[in-house]
Model the fold of this input.
Amino acid sequence: MFARRLGAFETLSKQCTPTPRHSQRRWAQVHDIRFLVTHQRADTITERYRDKLKQKAAQEGLQSVDELKTVYKTRIQEQREKATTNTAFPQPPPPPSPTPIDFPSATSPHPLSKPSAAPGLKTLSSFIDLPKTQALPPKEIEYIWRLRHASSPTSLCAVLPSSTYLRIQQIARKHPHFILPLPREGSTGAEIHFLQWSFPAPDTATVVFTHLAEYKIRGEFSQPHTTITMHLELMEEKGLVLMQGQVLEGRGVNVEEARWLVLCLQKFYGGEEGNHASRRRLLEKFSQGDETFKVEELVEEAEKVV
Done:
């Protein structure tokens, strides 16, 4: 029984054994194509331009193309060496020796000067000869100042006592922003204008007036129609502050209307605290954004004679 099973297994194994295939030999050869292409391309280029190379060799007085190659090989090598020499970076110069800075002391004959004014800002020296003016009495200074601006149709000028300016300055630093009404002829209402104080230099204070409607739209980019500058160079010595202003043409405000706004500014900022408490409250309400601030009260206070 076992022998019969073993024979059947051997027969099945023979049937399942695959018939061996004849091995296929490959005779293909692999070449380095890059080597062949590189060397063949140089030879091909030489053959293609051989006639022109011969012509060039004859022009140079040479006998063959190989002699031309040798000559130009030498020239190319010389040009490469020359280019390498010319492109070398030069050595940087030695750094300069540090120079000691002599800071003036408080006891030196040349003390530190005052901070310079902001760029573009006109000081009092831009309008008058300050050293000569300091030698004059206050009445003559006021006369010269008004005469200096009398010929300009768009200028404003005034002379303030130092005590009045100091009171205005104190309030202006607390309330640098405010609005003022400008009555219009033939209209029952008033046009509102926005003012801004600034102190760009120790001896200078400025005020700019802008249409409130324009300021609401353009903010800091709005264009002012009137600019006022107060010069303080003579305040301590002569007790005077010289004010100078300019009204821009084509901005909807003339010189008379600008004078009205300056007069209103002095009413709200220059009045005594006890005599004009209502105006001071309007300033405080506006600065604080108080909802009880009323334009009607502003117009009423502005139209008062005193």
